[in-house]
Structure formats: structure tokens, C-alpha cells
Amino acid sequence: MDPTVLKREPFIEGKEAFVEPQLCTGCGYCADYCRFDAFRDEGDGTYSIDPIRCEGCGVCVPLCPAKAIRFEERHCGHWMVSQTRFGTLVHARLQAAGENSGKLVTLVRKEARRIALEEEKRLLLVDGPPGIGCPVISSVTGADKVVLITEPTLSGWHDLERVSRLADNFKVPVYVCVNKADINQKLTLKIERSVKDSNNKFVGTILYDEALVQAQMLGLSPIEYLTGKTRNHIEKIWEKIWEKN
Length: 245
Fold this sequence. Notes:
Helix 5 links the parallel strand 6 (146-150) and strand 7. The chain is 36% helix and 26% strand. It has two domains: 6-76, 2-Layer Sandwich (Alpha-Beta Plaits); 144-245, P-loop containing nucleotide triphosphate hydrolases (Rossmann fold), CATH 3.40.50. By secondary structure, it is α/β, with parallel strands linked by helices. The longest helix has 17 residues, at 102-118. The strands form three sheets. The protein has a three-stranded antiparallel sheet with strand order 1-4-5, covered by helices on one side. The protein has a three-stranded parallel sheet with strand order 6-7-8, sandwiched between helices. Strands 2-3 form a two-stranded antiparallel ribbon. The protein has helices at 29-33, 60-63, 102-118, 134-140, 154-169, 185-197, 211-217, 222-225, 229-242, and strands spanning 4-19, 39-41, 47-49, 69-84, 87-94, 146-150, 174-179, 201-206. The chain starts with a strand and ends with a helix. It contains nine helices and eight strands.
């Protein structure tokens, strides 16, 4: 989408521990009690912490007899407001091992909603992660519709049913599309019947098409790059999703 960043803010989530080497006596209590094996013996009578392993539980802080461990807010990355050729984009970039959470998704979603109201936009799209954890719950919260994209595999079907139940708990209408539908047509038909039996809406299929990969490599959306059957399928799916209930 080639976004131009207009605003960048730090994202703080949780805390992490740091060892003050000048205070560390090398007693090793921290390493003994850390269940994540985050402490490293530096071989010079001090310990340090691997920031990738540290989960920020804080158990080491009160255990240190030398008070050599400080506990600070964890800087996980940045959230941004950008301009793209499609309009305003609110997004985030986490550091390596940065923690995604419902807090981050909620922050991004609320900022996007504020901008959408300010710009009098009719449509706000939230790209949610897979699974049923806190980030997904935050993505679904307040939505008018949930669009679920699956693939014709047993694991894909299983995950689809889980997130469908989650959306049902929030009383949000569910729309389902099967991607790469032609790699297992029998399972695609079973998924379609299952969706309809659960009173959710099956909006169509997208066939396997290597041109979609080419579009990604060129930084283009499928509608900008594709012609023919695959593009027609995507456009029809969107029309069904956009229909008023």
C-alpha cells in the first residue's frame, strides 16, 4: 500500500527487567527462580537478561538481595497513522518479540474510528489476526459484520468454527469465504453446507491463482492487478458482503 506515515507513537505494553551490572553481586537467585531462563551468567560475576526471553513477570525484582534489577515499561514498537492511495490507514509495527495484544488492537481500532468519524467515512475495515485470543476479540468488538476467510483444510475448517462461535457470542453477523477453494472441492462444499446450517452467510469462493502472489510482489491489491475469473469472484464476494441485511 506504500503508506506515507503522518503520525508515529510508541506502543507500551507490559514491563521488562534490566540488571544494573555495577550493583549485581552474581548471587544467581534471579537465574534460579526465573522460569523463562532469561538470565545469562556473563562469567565476570554478574548476570544479564535476554530481552527476548523475559516475559516481564517481575518475580526477580523482589528476590534480588542487591536490588540490582530495575523493572521498566516495555517498548514493544510503534503505532502509526498513514496516508495511502486508498485512504487513511492506522497500523502498527512491533519490534522483534514485541507483544501483540488486545490493548494494541483496541488502540488502533479506536484511533481509526475517530478518524473515520472526523472524515465522515461510511466504511471502516479492521484486519483481524487469526485465532480466538484477545487481539481477535478486540477486532470483533463493535463490528457490524465479521468476514472470515478460510481454506479447504481440516485445520482451516476447525479454526473457522471456533472464530464463528466467538463472533456469535458478540452477536455479530458472520460472512464466510473459502480461499483456494479448488484445491479440495469436496471439503469446500462441506464447509459451505456447515456455514449455511449454522445460519451464517456463505459469500463465495476464490480459486487458487498465482497472479495473487504477483500482485503482492508488485505492491498492488488484487483488484488493481487481476483480470478475469479471480477478480470477478472477489468483486461478487464484496457485493454480497456490502449488501444491506
